[in-house]
Write a structure and sequence with these properties.
The complex is a heterodimer of chains A (about 475) and B (about 450). Chain A has 24 helices and eight strands. Chain A has about 475 residues and is mostly helical. Chain A is globular. Chain B has ten helices and 19 strands. Classes of the chains: A mainly alpha (about 475), B alpha/beta (about 450). Chain A: GO terms for molecular function: 4 iron, 4 sulfur cluster binding; metal ion binding; oxidoreductase activity.
């Protein structure tokens, strides 16, 4: 028996589990991999057995090349933020010493997740950040603090929106009041610089119900639409565009029960809230998949959560199946349909489709989808879609709504704003609802979703699909 | 259904980008698929072709080379002209297989793609670029921002490092350059970076401050206007060390996309030409190169998917590769094409994988020649002539990987860059040139087979 691991020589009579004790004594350290001769590959969910989160396999893959820090939009402008390498692998190493708490700089991370794609060694950085942030909120952030309350409110936007959208005009009037905005800033720490997003007069689900559900039936082509909160309460026209475009391609659409994808909850360390939402979504979407549906989302942060964060952080039954059968809405069409030929027959000039300044959201970039819109609309004659560069928009969901982050958010976004001004188009395009807010906030442009452009080109014209 | 194109290039490094450009020039539609962000971000930004003539494995038992005696016999001097020695390379070296013209055309394609960002295209000869370790690296192309630092220039030089940047010890680098016999006076100084930044600030943070020329008085990066700016203060800190120096080398962090503007401003303030010293990763010159090459790919109509590994492939009834499959968080998406380029890198880039028995090509399982005796993979000494350094697929003259019998594994599969064996690129300083030469040929082959 090794002399490094505990105080008794055998485990025959001590009642402890020798194997477990060995792991605990070394904190999942070097001997763990050699004990059973197991050659099983690392499964992220394995580390969450019990209550302890252990991300050692990720920490060991880091060779400190600092590529993640170079990709981090926050570290580029915020002197108090030490970057993703510290928040992930280094924090883990520090944590191995007793009595070391999570460093409070973890709250500076905007959860853009760009570090994941930058890492040449596949360290699960954003996963490490999510767990560190959750631990910080759980152990170190008082639930009565202004910051906790504010973050809880921002993270649970859907709950607020469900209330507010019952009386959309009244809510819009109240939230648009500058006095209310000032109070929000002073009391809650929500910046007064931004206009609260307006609620649609009718939610997407209300419209869908009134419409009588799907207009197209199909046994072969079926998608379940994960609209998320924002397309339901605010940008209802994006959700409607999805319905019209998909029905034009002959899809039967279902709109299953769902809650927030969890993205704002991950970003604020509200992992319990996220878990509750995810449980509902995985069960509901899992049932649709069993019935032969694929899941599509119009928001790239929603698809990101379902595809990557759920399997990294949760292990409900069916989590992996939901991840493997979820797609971004545009991605799914491009894989399964010939979108290019009909699009090539349209002349945008005949249909008042403007030029666009396109920004790829970080969460689309992380799914390898950052180029799909610009590459697709090359085939649409008479439209110039300019990619406004690979910088982060700076808002990162709830990050840019926080009073103390607002200036950083705008400084991160500056490069995008400049490129937007230089682009031919004076209309913006992006898949992400909060990037869209930031683009509008920085330039005053109206912002469309690629599905709305497809709707204008393929549904509102007489082109044959 | 699948994503369709004429050619799919797998790998987003220099070899993959070159192959994609080369194929696109032949008029086909190319899709470039990369598992992670381009490895160009980790590269120095220098484009080497052949820096040193190193012996073939048979000439060296490894013990001498690893002894570290530093004598002139063990470490031959840098080559003046890479093209003059290509015929002396081993017959299975990629330059011999692809031909010297492939290197020449690959470099020309590179020059065309990067435009004024790079220098060195006026001659076949190597330039000597000072590095952060105080050596002069022989290289075929170098960023414009690096140009005034060349060792062939006789003007006196000052190297400046920053206290927070432990990677670059400027006085030591200056001492080493002097000891190496450079034909100019060189001194080194360490200064504090201007402004209040955390000790381990990201290199992008400092580059951002220089590019925006932030007011150093402000903690929140307000731009010029209130108080002295980052560039002003930095120039003031460097000036006392200037002496007779007519050029000043600073680690490569002079802004991101506006490096020439930052350089011109600092040069004017110091009345000496400011240049960048290439650093290790993460590297701003590498990021700038990536941006420029990807702009060229975009202009050439190349489609790109980044962040999704290729995990599988299918062959058709004719024995040709029909499609490759990418994995997007569990969703498997086929990419169909008429021809494919394998540019996945070597052992470090994970294009080659190895276990205790064999090294193998990771995706298609192409033949990788290697000693049967595992002990013969490496020699004694870290920088010795290791067999593993030359591991890789062995291609025909069209860069198609050959099987153990010497026939192409797949008629429509070509390989480029680090996955191609036969060169010890780390010792030769030939990694970029091998990527350009093999990428050029592989792209053409794929376009022909598509």
């Amino acid at each position: 028996m090794s002399d490094t691991h505990d105080t008794h020589d055998t485990h025959e009579d001590c009642g402890c589990d020798g194997e477990a004790n060995r792991s605990a004594a070394t904190d999942g350290g070097a001997v763990a991999g050699s004990t059973a001769g197991s050659e099983d590959e690392f499964e992220p969910v394995d580390v969450f057995e019990g209550s302890e989160m252990d991300l050692r396999p990720g920490a060991d893959s880091c060779y400190k090349c600092t590529s993640c820090d170079t990709s981090c939009p926050v570290a580029e402008v915020d002197d108090s933020f030490p970057g993703p390498k510290f928040q992930g692998p280094e924090q883990w190493r520090l944590k191995r010493k007793e009595d070391t708490e999570i460093d409070d700089s973890i709250t500076g991370c905007s959860n853009c997740m760009r570090c994941d794609g930058a890492c040449p060694s596949d360290v699960p950085l954003s996963q490490m950040h999510n767990t560190a942030r959750a631990e910080y909120v759980e152990n170190q952030q008082p639930t009565l603090s202004r910051e906790y309350l504010r973050n809880r409110i921002l993270a649970n936007y859907g709950t607020l929106a469900a209330l507010g959208s019952k009386v959309p005009r009244l809510t819009n009037a109240i939230m648009g009041n500058s006095l209310v905005q000032k109070v929000n800033e002073t009391v809650l720490g929500i910046t007064a610089e931004r206009d609260f997003p307006e609620f649609a007069d009718q939610t997407f689900r209300g419209w869908w119900k009134e419409r009588g559900g799907p207009k197209v039936e199909s046994e072969e082509k079926r998608v379940a639409y994960f609209h998320g909160d924002y397309a339901n309460y605010n940008t209802v026209e994006v959700a409607k565009a999805l319905v019209r475009v998909y029905e034009a391609f002959g899809y039967e659409i279902a709109v299953p029960d769902q809650r927030c994808s969890g993205t704002p909850m991950f970003a604020n360390g509200m992992l319990d809230d996220a878990r509750r939402s995810a449980a509902v979504n995985v069960e509901s979407l899992g049932e649709m998949i069993e019935q032969g549906y694929d899941v599509v989302a119009s928001c790239t942060s929603c698809s990101m959560a379902l595809r990557q964060e759920y399997p990294e952080l949760f292990d409900f039954e069916g989590t992996e199946t939901v991840a493997a059968n979820t797609y971004d809405a545009l991605e799914y069409l491009l894989i399964n349909e010939n979108v290019i030929d009909p699009l090539s027959e349209v002349d945008a000039a005949d249909h008042d489709i403007p030029d666009f300044a396109y920004h790829a959201p970080c969460h689309s970039r992380n799914q390898g989808l950052d180029r799909q819109a610009v590459e697709l609309f090359r085939y649409l004659d008479g439209v110039d879609v300019a990619d406004v560069g690979d910088s982060c928009s700076g808002i990162s969901g709830t990050y840019g709504w926080k009073e103390e982050k607002y200036e950083y958010s705008m400084e991160i976004g500056e490069e995008m704003f400049e490129h937007m001004e230089h682009a031919n188009g004076e209309t913006g395009m992006t898949e992400c609802p909060t990037c869209s807010m930031q683009m509008e906030h920085g330039t005053g442009y109206e912002i469309d979703h690629p599905l709305q452009v497809l709707e204008a080109a393929l549904v509102d014209t007489d082109v044959t699909i | 259904m699948a994503i369709e194109s004429d050619v799919v290039v797998i790998g987003g490094g220099l070899a993959g980008a070159t192959a994609a450009l080369s194929a696109a020039r032949e008029g086909v539609h190319v899709h470039l698929v990369s598992a992670n962000e381009s490895t160009l971000r980790q590269a120095s930004g220098l484009i080497d072709a052949l820096g040193y003539a190193v012996g073939h494995a048979a000439e060296n038992d490894g013990e001498d080379a690893g002894a570290g005696s530093g004598d002139a016999d063990a470490v031959p001097g840098p080559l003046a002209d890479p093209f003059a020695v290509i015929e002396d390379l081993p017959a299975d070296h990629p330059y011999r297989v692809a031909g010297a013209d492939a290197l020449r055309e690959g470099l020309a394609l590179f020059d065309d793609a990067v435009g004024d960002l790079y220098r060195g295209g006026h001659t076949d000869r190597n330039a000597l670029v000072p590095t952060t370790s105080g050596r002069a690296k022989p290289t075929a192309r170098y960023p414009q921002s690096v140009a005034p630092g060349l060792a062939s220039d006789g003007r006196p030089m000052l190297l400046v490092g920053f206290e927070a940047d432990t990677e670059f010890d400027a006085p030591l680098a200056a001492e080493r350059l002097s000891a190496a016999g450079v034909p100019f006076d060189v001194s080194g100084a360490t200064v504090e970076f201007a402004g209040e930044y955390r000790a381990d600030a990201a290199v992008t943070r400092l580059a951002h401050a220089l590019e925006r020329d932030e007011s150093a008085a402000s903690g929140r990066g307000t731009t010029a206007g209130e108080g002295r700016t980052t560039r002003q203060r930095l120039a003031d800190r460097i000036r006392p060390h200037l002496g007779d120096a007519e050029r000043v080398g600073i680690p490569a962090m002079l802004g991101d996309s506006h490096v020439e503007e930052v350089r011109a401003d600092l040069s004017e303030r110091l009345d000496a030409e400011v240049f960048e010293v290439p650093t290790g990763p993460p590297s701003l010159p590498g990021i700038r190169l990536e941006d420029r090459l990807f702009d060229a790919l975009d202009s050439a109509g190349v489609s790109m998917t980044t962040g999704t590994p290729v995990v599988d492939f299918e062959t058709g009834a004719d024995g040709r590769v029909a499609s490759v499959t990418i994995d997007r968080n569990g969703a498997r998406i086929p990419y169909e094409a008429g021809a494919f380029v394998l540019a996945t890198g070597g052992l470090v880039g994970k294009g080659l994988d190895s276990d205790r028995e064999r090294a193998h090509e990771a995706l298609f399982g192409c033949h990788v020649p290697q000693p049967d005796d595992r002990m013969a993979w490496s020699a004694g000494g870290a920088f010795a002539d290791h067999a593993f350094a030359r591991f890789g697929v062995r291609p025909d003259d069209r860069m198609r990987p050959l099987d153990v019998e010497g026939t192409p594994e797949y008629a429509n599969l070509a390989a480029a860059g680090g996955v191609v064996g036969g060169a010890d690129v780390a010792r030769e300083k030939s990694a970029s040139g091998v990527s350009l030469a093999t990428g050029l040929v592989a792209g053409r082959t794929a376009a022909e087979e598509a």
